[in-house]
Amino acid sequence: MDRNPEAVGLWDGMCPKEMRFVAKKWIRALPVDSENLFGRERFRRAVKDACVANAFAKMQGLDPPAPPVAQIVDARLEGQELFVVMEHGGTDLLEVMINNRPMREAKYFRELANAAAIIYHILSSIDRMHALGVLHCDLKPENIIVREGGATHLSQAKLIDFDTAESISKPPPSRRVWSGTPQYWSVNRSRGLGCARESDIW
């Protein structure tokens, strides 16, 4: 399989029919043309998250591997409602941070090990994603899910919500671009200069 995400439909919107997408998106007043849905820009934007996740899932096992993602379960269009179902990947990182002690207050080695594992998975996923030419462009605790560890394994983290993802090779915007979550914008993004590798790391 080609390592290039664009070759498996990341940016042209041509997602495989076998996509299996817990989220529901509503497309208001979208004229339903079953033969050319992916020809509509609005529809492609609505399913972009699922398309990117699906492409990464299909690239698992390659060297270098794609970042782990929540597996797509099903995608159905019922009238003007798009139902996207994905595996339950755990709790978002913000809730995990609220419900657990800070690392400096950890009382047990296991707490530190779990925190280290989460940090590793996040940084590794960003590195793998960038190596494949993809920018997330909206990284924040709510867009990282954590499956908390137990007695026999450490916590695991995955990136989700690729709605605003962009290709690294995409030309810089000719005008100011505002997308993502303002509270987590990098300096460049706050100036409307678009997304870059540094934006994901910020």
UniProtKB/TrEMBL annotation:
PANTHER family tied to this protein: OVARIAN-SPECIFIC SERINE/THREONINE-PROTEIN KINASE LOK-RELATED, SERINE_THREONINE-PROTEIN KINASE CHK2
Membrane-spanning intervals of the chain:
none
Enumerate the GO terms in the molecular function aspect: ATP binding; protein serine/threonine kinase activity
Kindly provide the name given to this protein in its UniProt entry.
Answer: Protein kinase domain-containing protein
UniProt domain Protein kinase: residue ranges: 1-202
To which species is this protein native? Zooxanthella nutricula
One GO cellular component this record assigns the protein to is: nucleus
Q: Which GO terms describe its biological process?
A: mitotic DNA damage checkpoint signaling
